Amino acid sequence: MQEEFYAAAEKILSDLYNLFSKDPKLKSFEILPVVQIENKSPIHVEEHCLALESWCVPHIYCYAYKNLMNHRQIKGKLRDAEKCNTLLMGALLLNPDITTFWNMRKELIRSGKLDPYFDLHFTSVILTFKPKCADLYAFRKWILKYLVQSSRNNENLFENEIQICEAAADRYSNNYHAWTHRIWCLTQSLPNSLQREWAASMKWVQRHVSDYSGFHYRQKLITFLLSYIDSRSYDQEVIKLILFSVDEATEGFLHNFKTYELTAQTIPLTLKIFVYELSLNSDLIWNFVGHEALWCHRRFIFHEIKRLLLDSNCPKYWGRLDTSNPADGTPPEKTPKIGKHSVGSEFSLILSIYEDMFLAKCSDEREPRQMFYANKHKQWLAKFSKFRLPLNEDRDNPVFRGSYK
Amino acid sequence: MQMWSVTSVVKGHAEHFKTILLGRVFHEEEAVINKKLPKELLLRIFSYLDVVSLCRCAQVSKTWNVLALDGSNWQRIDLFNFQTDVEGSVIENLSRRCGGFLRKLSLRGCQSVEDSSMRTLAGYCINVEDLNLNGCKNITDATCQSLARHCKKLSRLDLGSCSKVTDFSLKTLADGTPNLTNINISWCEAVTENGVEALARGCPKLKSFVSKGCLQITDKAISCLAQYCPLLEVVNLHGCVSVEDSGVSKLALCCPGLHNVCLSGCVRLTDASLVALAQHCHSLSTLEVAGCAQFTDTGFQALARNCRLLEKMDLEECVLITDQTLIHLAMGCPRLEKLSLSHCELITDDGIRSLGTSPCSAEHLTVLELDNCPLITDTSLEHLITCHNLQRVELYDCQLITRAGIRRLRNHLPNIRVHAYFAPVTPPPNTSGSRQRYCRCCAIL
């Protein structure tokens, strides 16, 4: 009886193959939970959305799997590429987690029997069904590398890929694989994509406040941005919008601390980026109460700020405010410690005041979750990062004494 | 030493063979087989071997190399299984070895074959009669030109999917190969009516003309074929959408020997074509008219009355036909073996009944395709019980067919393959396990 169905399975598989080759607009795949009653094709296509009825899934998969395993025994030249392709499509559509089958597809592509663009489409459809399939992303990465070796318009390729990642992340929260793939795509299209991704990831994190994978992506993005700025040959035009928004945020941040000598112009660009990120994060925490991912991201921000403040590699950012001591001609490389009157010290002071105010605001009795995270954050700050909260110790600091009320 | 490397596998075997042989005897002159058998006999033995075995033998010893690679062993060569390995140099070595001996060569799917090596082949192997170049996408008009110049005996040529081939090829072939009987120019999309006309004028012995998917082939081309090639027996115009009734009528009128006709996808054809075929081509045995949606019962009635030798008919998507067609076919075509009625949505159980009750077709009918005929019910299957020879029935998407109906049919015809979407039923759980009401430990206790 099982063998009886094989002819039908073959027909269904070839129908699926034809659908994919005839309709390049096909956008999604789904399995419908249906119990079979009639002698009716299990394939449904509605407005470029493909669906398969569930009753046939095990049979088709068994058929495809068995045949493919037999097929692998046949020595290379006698293989029927088209049949192999049809079987592979069926098997991978239903279960994309088999590395062997993806490798067989790679073989087909490499021998010129399969169009890599066709597979980009095919896999994008599978992604709507299983958006969290690591093998699939690995395969796409392989295809893209393969195409980059041979083709011209790579920019478009990665832009498209990033959109697909976004769709996959939308379908499955905390989709680590999709975001990792997106990071890879980002590295392939640097630096042109920086600005676009900056805006896109901001939008994303604003809408998905508890998806840490999205935040992780943003952290990577910021790292890339910093290293791009560090490369010193950077083009202002490429990141114009980022610079603009960052400046604006810094002005806003410093608005409450007017009594200090610090202005937006004296703060180095890299630090401004984190000021921007910090105010964004504060807004989100304030608006969306009790999401751990937000607090984790805040830790990243503080960690990075601290690193920047201590970073001896970029002394040019830390020109002293106190110019009364010009004899000290030695560059500050040798003094990674934050000088008392440097921009760094002043900034860290402002930051600790800001953070203290923020945490106080968050410690609301009515929101135990938020309070819990705020306390945790406070502890973390005290322990790992040496930002001293001014209320406790720094009262004798002259700069501080003049302002905070 | 080796003529060409067909596959590394072959080589491996030969090495093995060689070591065994040379291990036993030091000099090949002393080898028993060479002593006992004269060269002529060895040659004769080799002539029965296939390509792979010959290549293996050629690596055994110098004597055998000469014998195995003798052109007389290489009259018919099919390199389809080695298509990816076949490069230009292979063809050139092959043509030098075979020379005038080569009669038949198949290079189907050997995509890396190019004009230059084909030119060498044409120069050396002037006696080639049957050449299959299907899927050799790189060859152009130059190949056909050299073939036409040298290979006067060429009678069968397959140029399917050689998309660079144009009218010019057909013109040179028409001038150079008057003995051509079979030609296949499927998917050579550059070919137009001019090329076909020239071919028809130059090759009056043409028996088989296959041009699937040649969109530029028109009525005029078909008329010319009909006019100059009266011996035509096989015509395949699958997907030649611009063909019309007048061309097919003329073809039927001039070529009474037609027995295999494919007009699938020629959407402009009407009953007039069928009537013409019915009037003139009484030996028609295969007719494929899938997708000719204008054909009606009238046309098939005429056909069934006159073409009593029909064996295979593909009527897929002839959406206008009704049970009447089946009644006429059942009466008029006793040899019917294979009948496809896919997507003929007006067919009902009555039509199938007449098919099932016609005694002769019941004797021969082996394949019946009824997929997507929504009016077919289990009753149809009961009518088919009398068709003893029936091997396959397609019932995909016939939504009135039930499992029970198929089971009944299978009870009567145990060897039949019924293709439907019914998934295999999982066997019911073993009911003999009633004693397992208690778990094992309780039973022990």
From TrEMBL, chain A:
From what superkingdom does this record's organism come?
Eukaryota
What keywords tag this UniProt record?
Prenyltransferase, Repeat, Transferase
Cellular-component GO terms for this entry: cytoplasm
Q: Name one Pfam family in it.
A: PPTA
Query: What GO molecular function terms would the record report?
Result: protein prenyltransferase activity
InterPro entries per the record?
Prenyl_trans_a
Q: Does the keyword Coiled coil apply?
A: no
The record's annotation in SUPFAM superfamilies points to: Protein prenylyltransferase
Family statement: Belongs to the protein prenyltransferase subunit alpha family.
Query: What protein does this entry describe?
Result: Protein prenyltransferase alpha subunit repeat-containing protein 1
Question: Which organism does this sequence originate in?
Answer: Nezara viridula
Task: Please spell out the taxonomic lineage of the organism that makes this protein.
Answer: Eukaryota, Metazoa, Ecdysozoa, Arthropoda, Hexapoda
UniProtKB/TrEMBL annotation, chain B:
* Keywords associated with the record: Calcium, Calmodulin-binding, Isopeptide bond, Leucine-rich repeat, Lipoprotein, Membrane, Phosphoprotein, Prenylation, Repeat, Ubl conjugation, Ubl conjugation pathway
Principal localization reads membrane
How is this protein positioned relative to the membrane? Lipid-anchor
Cross-referenced SMART domains: FBOX (SM00256), LRR_CC (SM00367)
Look up keyword Lipoprotein and say if it applies: yes
The protein's matches in CDD domains, at most eight in alphabetical order, are given as:
F-box_FBXL2-like
* Keyword hit for Metal-binding: no
> Which pathway, metabolic or otherwise, does it act in?
Protein modification; protein ubiquitination
Gene Ontology cellular-component terms listed: cytoplasm; membrane
| An MF annotation (GO) of this entry | calmodulin binding
Question: What biological-process GO terms show up in the record?
Answer: protein ubiquitination; regulation of defense response; SCF-dependent proteasomal ubiquitin-dependent protein catabolic process
Q: How does it assemble?
A: Part of the SCF (SKP1-CUL1-F-box) E3 ubiquitin-protein ligase complex SCF(FBXL2) composed of CUL1, SKP1, RBX1 and FBXL2. Interacts with calmodulin; may antagonize substrate ubiquitination by SCF(FBXL2). May interact with PIK3R1. Interacts with PTPN13.
PANTHER family named in the record = FI18408P1, MITOCHONDRIAL ATP SYNTHASE COUPLING FACTOR B
Q: What is this protein called?
A: F-box/LRR-repeat protein 2
Organism (species): Nezara viridula (Southern green stink bug)
